[in-house]
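Q: Structure tokens for this one, please.
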Amino acid sequence: MAEIDKSLPNTATEVEIPEEEIVDATEAVTDTSGETEVQLDEDGGATINFDPTAAALEGGEQHDANLAEFLEDKILDPLASELMDKYSTYKETRGDWEESYREGLSLLGFKYVTRTEPFKGASSVTHPVLAEAVTQFQAQAYKELLPAEGPVRTQILGDVSIPKEEQSKRVKDFMNYQIMDQMKEYEPEFDQMLFYLPLSGSTFKKVYYDDLLGRAVSKFIPAEDIVVPYSATSLEDAEAIIHMVKMSENDLRKQMYSGFYKEVELGEPQLKQDRIKEK
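A: Here is the predicted structure, written as tokens:
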């Protein structure tokens, strides 16, 4: 236990304490860029006002800009090589499906074939049972999935009230107008998709915003143009989804000019027709 030295004089020492700086709680603080404003509240909190769309990459580009414009070739080249390797691997693993699909198209009987086996001039007539089944499926599915009033139907979740019912009707009417009137390609491509579905077993619809048309579009994508790992049970489980896009050189140059694709020097296209397209 420490002892107290009582010999020291009992004197008081004065210490000057600086006055507290008074800060106005309602003072607004703005950063140097002028894009973010911080408003201090009286209770000690703060309100931050900013434009979320003002976030930009270096060089003034927008957040959704094409990353290929910023990545160097030493990064892009390995990515392209890896993607091409996966494409070739995925195509090889689904070879059995392509063979079955190609042979199934022969059973439709839509193309006359002159046979030389088992003898020259032998009959090449194919029973139309498969073609009839495909056509009946297409007609019935079209009637159910694309009725006259439009394909969009709405459902109210939770308590039903008059404002919710009116809002539901407005959403239904607008989306049906958008699909059936504005998206000119929706109905014919949907009809074509229903014909391919029973033949290939899978078909796809790709809905996206087209910068050239200035609106949303809905395209039918055949199964042979979507390449995924054959072991994938769904698109959500697939480690990669490769869509083989076919477009004219003029459309490609328009897309590059608009910034959707990186501007590169175009070479001569390789006209490679696969066996399914030939069939």
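A few notes: Helices lie at 73-93, 95-106, 129-145, 162-182, 186-200, 249-258, 275-278. The radius of gyration is 34 Å.
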